[in-house]
Amino acid sequence: IAVDKQKVHAYIDDVYAHCARTADIAEELATSIPDFGFSKYIRSACLIHDIGKIAMASLDSGYLNFLDEAKKKELPRRVRFFVENEKFRVNHAILGALSCHYFQIFRDIDQAILHHHEPFLLRGLNRNLHQLSSLICLATNVSSNFMRIEKLNDPIISVWKGLEISDFPVDAKDLLVTVAKLAR
Fold first, then answer.
1. What is residue 65's DSSP assignment?
2. Which of 24, 63, 89, 131 is a plausible cystine mate for 56, CB 3.0–4.6 Å?
3. What is the b/e burial string over 141-152, where b = at least 16 CB atoms within 10 angstroms of the residue's CB?
4. Which residues are CB-neighbours of 74 under 8 A, at least 6 positions away?
5. Which of 52, 43, 122, 123 has its CA nearest to residue 81?
C-alpha cells in the first residue's frame, strides 16, 4: 500500500510532541507517588508508548485516514482503540509492546506499553508494571486533554482519571499542581 511519506512524517512529529508532553506530565506526577517502583522507566516508557502508531502509519496509509475519520466523528479513545483493532486486526499497543520486547533495553516495560490503555489488566499481576501503565495512561489523558484548571472539582479531572485508572492513587490536587507547573 502506498504511503504518503510527508503525511507520515508530519504524523510522527505529532506523536513525538504528544509523547514528550506525556513524559513531562508523568515525571512530574511520579514525584507525588512515594512508592512508585519503576521511576527509572517513566520518561522512556512515555516517549515510546505510541511507537505502534508510527509503525501502523508507516505500514498502512489507511491508518492515517482512519485516525482522521475517528477524529471527525469524535470517537472516544476506548471506541477508537476497539475499532482500530477490528479494522487492522492489530492495534498500536500490540505493535508497541512487540517493538519493546525485541529491543532488550525496553523488554522490562513491554507489558506496560501493551496495556497503556487498559492498565487494570495488570492489576494483581505486577505492581510496578501496573503503576507504570496507569501513570502512562493518566499522563496520556492529561496530555490529550491538556488545559489549566483552577478548582479541584473541575470536570476535566474525571476525564483525566477515566475508568481505566479509577484505582490509581493520584490526588486531584497533584494533577492541578502538575498542570499549572507545565502550563507556564
1. H
2. 63
3. bbbeebeebeee
4. none
5. 52
Residues 132, 41 contacting (CB under 8 angstroms) = yes
Collapsing DSSP states into helix, strand and coil, what is residue 38? Answer: coil
What whole-number distance in Å separates Cα of residue 133 and Cα of residue 113? 7
Inter-CA distances, 182 with 60, 100, 112, 147, Å:
35, 28, 24, 10
Residue 184's SS3 state is coil
Give the C-alpha separation, 163 to 18, whole Å: 21
Q: How far is CA 125 from the centre of its chain?
A: 20
Contact 129, 150 (CB under 8 A): no
CA quadruple 86, 50, 175, 72: dihedral sign: negative
pLDDT digits (tens, 9 = 90+) for 122-149: 999 999 999 999 999 999 999 998 988 8
Q: Is 151:136 a contact under the CB 8 Å cutoff?
A: no
Q: Nearest Cα to 114, choosing from 90, 142, 87?
A: 90
pTM of this prediction exceeds 0.90: yes
- Output phi, psi for 44, to 5 deg: -65, -40
The residue type of 159 is V
Dihedrals phi, psi of 161, to nearest 5 degrees: -95, 45
